[in-house]
Design a protein that fits this description.
The chain has 2 domains: 279 residues, Aldehyde Dehydrogenase, Chain A, domain 1 (3-Layer(aba) Sandwich), CATH 3.40.605.10; 194 residues, Aldehyde Dehydrogenase, Chain A, domain 2 (3-Layer(aba) Sandwich), CATH 3.40.309.10. The N and C termini lie far apart (52 Å). It is globular and about 75 Å long. The longest helix has 24 residues. Helix content is 37%, strand content 19%. The chain has 525 residues and is of the alpha/beta class. It contains 14 helices and 22 strands.
Length: 525
C-alpha cells in the first residue's frame, strides 16, 4: 500500500511516494539505540530459562562492516535441542487445551509487541542483514500483519470446527482440526523477522509448540522475536529460542523423535533432504519453501519505464537475496534494445553503500560465501555471455569494510546455465525472445516455480501467461516489483515445483491449516 504519513501509516516493500520525514527520524533514533546494545553476549532460551552453552559462541558480524560485532550468541548442542523439544512437548499439551480464542488473543498481543518495537527491530535487521531502511521496516511490519492475518483466519473459521451431516437422527458429527504437537521452525537470514514470525505464529495459533532456530547470520533478529512472544504472554517453554550452527544442530533438530513437524525456508538441497528423511515410522508434515529462479516477460506492448523499474527493484532489492527476486528477464525482440537502455539507466542510478543510511537502496550481500557465489557466477557468465553492467566487487571506503558487490546485468544465450540456477546474489540474466510462447517455454524449464511477472498492454496475454506459467505467485504490470513484494492477505506466497512442498503458501488463507490434522468426531445422543 502507499503511505501518506510515515508516522501513522504502514511501510511495505511496495510503499511509494510517502512522506518519510517522521519515519527517518524514528529510524535514526532506533539505530542509535541498537548500536549502543551491540557486542553483548546472549544465551539460548529453553523452557523460559537462559541457558549458556560450553561451545564457542556465534560471533554475529555486520555484513556492512565485518569489524562491527553485533553480539555473541550461544551455540547450542544436540543436548540443548533435546531439552527444548521436551519443554515444547510438555507446554504444548496445555496450550492445545486452551480455547482457540485464548490462543488468538495471546498472539494478537504478540503482533502488538512487534509493532511497539518495529523501529528497533528494523534497525537490527538493517545492521545484521544489510537491508535498506524500507526493506527492514517492511520486514518488521509484515511480521505483525502475518500474525493478525493468521489469527483472523482462525477466527473466521471458528477455530476450524465444522459441523457435518448425519445418518441417524441421534447422531452429532463434526470435523475438528487439531495440532500435530511440536514443530521445528528453521528460518533463513533474508527475511529474518517476517519468515520466522509467519512460520512460528501459524504453528502456535494452530496449537503447536515450537523449537525455533534462526539463521546463524541473524540470531539477534531472532532473539527479538522471542522477546516479543514472551512479552505477549506466550508460555515459557512453548516457544524455545535455540541458536547454533546448522552443521552442529541441524540434523539434531529435525531428527529428534519428539518432533512432529518441520517448517523450513531455505535451499532446495537442504529442504529436499529433510523431506526425504524426516518421515520414517510414519508420514510427518514437512512444510518447505525452497527458493526460486523467477522470470519476468516484457512484451512488445509493455510500458517500458514501468517494466524497467519493476525488474530493477525486484532484481536488486536486498541485493538479489530474495527467493522471489527477479533473476531472469525475457524481452520481446522488438523492444529489447529500448528496454535494455531503460533498465541500464535505472540500474546506474542505484545508490550503493551503507543501507542504514536513508538514501541508500543497495547494501552488502550477507557473507563471504555469497561473495564467492557472485564471483563464480560472473566467471560463468563470461563464458558465452556479456557483462552489461557491474560484474565486480565494489571497492573503496565503506565497500572495503564489508561484503559488497555491484548490481550486475548479464546478457546471455537462452541455454546458458545461469538462466536455470538459483544464485541468491545481485545478478540479473537478460535474454531476447520472439514472443510470449517462447518466454513461457524458457521460464518453465527451471526446476523452480515461485514467482513470475509480465508487462504487457494486452489483457489476453496476462490471462494466458497466468494460465501457463508454472509459478505460484504471479504479477502483471507492477512497477514497484516485477516479482517481489507479497503481503499477508494480499498476495499468497506459494511455491510450485522445486520451490515448495505443499501447494499452499504463506500470507494466504490455507497456511495455518497445514499445521493441523483433521479429527472426525461422532457422538450418539
Amino acid at each position: 500500500m502507499s503511505t501518506v504519513s510515515a508516522a501513522a501509516s504502514k511501510i511495505t516493500y511496495s510503499s511509494a511516494h510517502a512522506d518519510m520525514t517522521a519515519f527517518h527520524r524514528s529510524f535514526d533514533q532506533a539505530l542509535t539505540l541498537v548500536r549502543g546494545k551491540a557486542g553483548r553476549e546472549h544465551p539460548l532460551w529453553i523452557d523460559g530459562k537462559a541457558v549458556k552453552s560450553p561451545s564457542p559462541p556465534i560471533v554475529d558480524l555486520s555484513p556492512i562492516d565485518t569489524s562491527f560485532i553485533l553480539g555473541k550468541f550461544s551455540a547450542a548442542t544436540a543436548e540443548h535441542v533435546d531439552l527444548a523439544v521436551k519443554a515444547a512437548r510438555r507446554e504444548q499439551k496445555k496450550w492445545a487445551s486452551l480455547s482457540w480464542k485464548e490462543r488468538v488473543e495471546t498472539m494478537r498481543r504478540a503482533s502488538q509487541a512487534i509493532r511497539e518495537r518495529k523501529y528497533e527491530i528494523a534497525a537490527v535487521m538493517s545492521l545484521e542483514v544489510g537491508k535498506s531502511r524500507m526493506e527492514a521496516m517492511g520486514d518488521a511490519e509484515e511480521s505483525a500483519d502475518l500474525i493478525d492475518y493468521y489469527a483472523k483466519n482462525v477466527e473466521d473459521n471458528d477455530g476450524y470446527v465444522v459441523p457435518l451431516g448425519k445418518l441417524l437422527p441421534n447422531e452429532k458429527t463434526c470435523s475438528v482440526l487439531r495440532p500435530f504437537g511440536v514443530f521445528v521452525c528453521i528460518a533463513p537470514y533474508n527475511f529474518p523477522m517476517a519468515l520466522s514470525t509467519g512460520m512460528s505464529a501459524a504453528a502456535l495459533l494452530a496449537g503447536n509448540g515450537v523449537v525455533y532456530k534462526p539463521a546463524q547470520d541473524t540470531p539477534w533478529t531472532g532473539l527479538m522475536l522471542y522477546e516479543c512472544y514472551m512479552a505477549a504472554g506466550v508460555p515459557a517453554g512453548l516457544f524455545n529460542y535455540v541458536t547454533g550452527l546448522g552443521s552442529a544442530i541441524g540434523d539434531a533438530l529435525w531428527k529428534n523423535p519428539g518432533v512432529d513437524g518441520i517448517v523450513f525456508t531455505g535451499s532446495k538441497e537442504v529442504g529436499m533432504r529433510m523431506v526425504k528423511e524426516f518421515s520414517s515410522a510414519y508420514p510427518k508434515p514437512a512444510l518447505m519453501e525452497l527458493g526460486g529462479k523467477n522470470p519476468t516477460y516484457v512484451s512488445e506492448t509493455a510500458r517500458l519505464d514501468d517494466a524497467a523499474q519493476g525488474v530493477m527493484r525486484s532484481a536488486f532489492g536486498l541485493q538479489g537475496q530474495k527467493c522471489s527476486a527477479c533473476s531472469r528477464v525475457y524481452v520481446h525482440e522488438q523492444v529489447y534494445d529500448a528496454f535494455l537502455a531503460e533498465l541500464l539507466k535505472n540500474t546506474r542510478a542505484i545508490k550503493c553503500g551503507d543501507p542504514t543510511q536513508k538514501d541508500v537502496f543497495f547494501g552488502p550481500v550477507i557473507n563471504g560465501k555469497a561473495i564467492k557465489t557472485f564471483e563464480a557466477a560472473i566467471e560463468s557468465a563470461k563464458n558465452g555471455g556479456k557483462i552489461l553492467i557491474g560484474g565486480e566487487r565494489l571497492r573503496g571506503g565503506i565497500f572495503d569494510q564489508g561484503h559488497f558487490c555491484a548490481p550486475t546485468i548479464v546478457e546471455l544465450p537462452l541455454d546458458h546455465e545461469i538462466f536455470m540456477r538459483e544464485l541468491f546474489v545481485p545478478i540479473l540474466a537478460i535474454g531476447k525472445v520472439k514472443n510470449m510462447d517462447q518466454a513461457i517455454e524458457e521460464s518453465n524449464k527451471a526446476e523452480y516455480g515461485l514467482t513470475a511477472g509480465i508487462f504487457t498492454a494486452k489483457k489476453e496475454e496476462i490471462q494466458k501467461y497466468f494460465d501457463e506459467i508454472e509459478s505460484g505467485v504471479c504479477y502483471a504490470n507492477r512497477p514497484t516489483g516485477a516479482t517481489t513484494g507479497a503481503w499477508p492477505g494480499v498476495q499468497s506466497f506459494c511455491g510450485w515445483k522445486g520451490s515448495g512442498s505443499t501447494g499452499k503458501g504463506g500470507c494466504g488463507p490455507y497456511y495455518v491449516t497445514q499445521f493441523m490434522r483433521e479429527q472426525s468426531r461422532t457422538i450418539m445422543e
